[in-house]
Amino acid sequence: MEPLPERLSVGVPLVRRLIDTQFPRWADQPIRPVPRGGWDNHTFRLGTDMLVRLPSAASYALAVEKEQRWLPFLAPRLPLPIPVPLAAGRPDVDYPHPWSVYRWIDGETVSVPLDSCADALADFLTALRGVDPAGGPGPGLHNWYRGGPLQTYDEGIKDGIEKLDDPGLRGAVADSWQESLDAPWHGEPVWFHGDIAPGNLLADRGALSAVIDFGTCGVGDPACDLAIAWTSLTASAREAFRNRMGVDDATWLRGRGWALWKATVAGPALDVIDRILGRADRWPASSC
Questions:
Q1: In Å, what is the CA distance from 99 to each residue of 60, 105, 188?
Q2: Nearest 5°: phi and psi at 103?
Q3: Torsions phi, psi of 108, nearest 5?
Q4: How is 189-215 classified by DSSP, letter by letter?
Q5: CA nearest neighbour of 43 among 29, 32, 27, 28
Q6: 194-206: b or e for each residue (b if 16 or more CB lie within 10 Å)?
Q7: Do 69 and 60 form a contact (C-beta atoms < 8 A)?
Q8: Is the Cβ–Cβ distance between 241 and 118 less than 8 Å?
Q9: Which stretches of the chain are DSSP H helices?
Q10: Where is 109: in which H helix or E strand?
Q11: At 12, is the secondary structure helix, strand, or coil?
Q12: Residue 263: per-residue pLDDT
């Protein structure tokens, strides 16, 4: 796994100048940062119904052109709202990357376990996989190799496994990971989101209302979108989610591998690792 890139610092004054010079029609709209605006992008509210997203590093900026090209294509073909760009910003002397203005989507990020949202999420992912993939962007650095083989992250997870204190846990994670690596993919490439996680799902009055942040989307193996089944669904909801999507055994195992990679290299998240391995299924007292 490649190290995280160094992030640019972006504040309101810079965003104000970019808007005023490139989109003077919005010069009268106030700008304010969005709390917990994400890692890949700096996010700001523009007025009451728009947002500005500026990539925080060069590797994240690779997604901007893709989003500008493909989100308007995907949006009318999906059962829930997704972000659709309103304008494409240009790099300038003080900010070196392309950037975007989007329509603001109301909603609150979901809480885990998100069992009450599982059916709607399964239907969304099923619809996404059914969109014509012709010409869509394949796996690569622009989407952090989502949709590609798990082997891309083999070295990174092995380093993470070595850092686990419990020898028994190290062995269990290694065995589970190898099982996922050995699960073949012989399907046709389909659309995937690439980062289906609670922070990228919005709810309104307890129901899933939108899916956001398509920076890692592309066309390839959709197993990466199944990681949320282990990270954010209880065991019973996980099985219902799988059945609703009609996921085959090999794809399910690869999805488990994506979840295990995330839980092992980022933290590690021992509670999630235990959940993936079937050692525990404890959750906070909250829901979608």
A1: 10, 18, 32
A2: -75, 135
A3: -110, 140
A4: -EEE-S---GGGEEEETTEEEEE---T
A5: 32
A6: bbbbbebbbbeee
A7: no
A8: yes
A9: 12-22, 58-74, 118-129, 154-162, 167-181, 228-232, 235-245, 249-265, 270-276
A10: strand 108-109
A11: helix
A12: 95
> Would you say residue 1 has pLDDT above 50?
no
pLDDT at 286: 46
Query: 284 pLDDT exceeds 70?
Result: no
Q: Look at residue 211 and tell me whether its pLDDT is greater than 50.
A: yes
Strand partners, 211: 201
How many other C-beta atoms are found inside a 10 Å radius of the C-beta of residue 50?
Answer: 19
Q: From its phi and psi, is residue 220 left (phi > 0), alpha (psi between -120 and 50) or beta?
A: left
Closest alpha carbon to 8 in 34, 39, 30? 39
Sequence letter at residue 283: W
Residues 48-60 pLDDT 10s: 999 999 999 999 9
The amino acid at 73 = F
Roughly how many angstroms between the first and final C-alpha of the chain, as a whole number?
A: 32
pLDDT band per the 50, 70, 90 thresholds, residue 268 = confident
Task: Output the pLDDT for position 133.
Answer: 98
168 CB neighbour count, 10 Å cutoff: 8
User: Do the beta carbons of residue 234 and residue 228 sit within 8 Å?
Assistant: no
Q: How far apart are CA 121 and CA 206, in angstroms?
A: 13
Say which residues have a Cβ less than 8 Å from residue 196's Cβ, sequence separation at least 6: 121, 125, 211, 225, 227, 228
Q: Report the 10 Å Cβ neighbour count for 91.
A: 12
Nearest alpha carbon to residue 38 among 208, 213, 194: 213
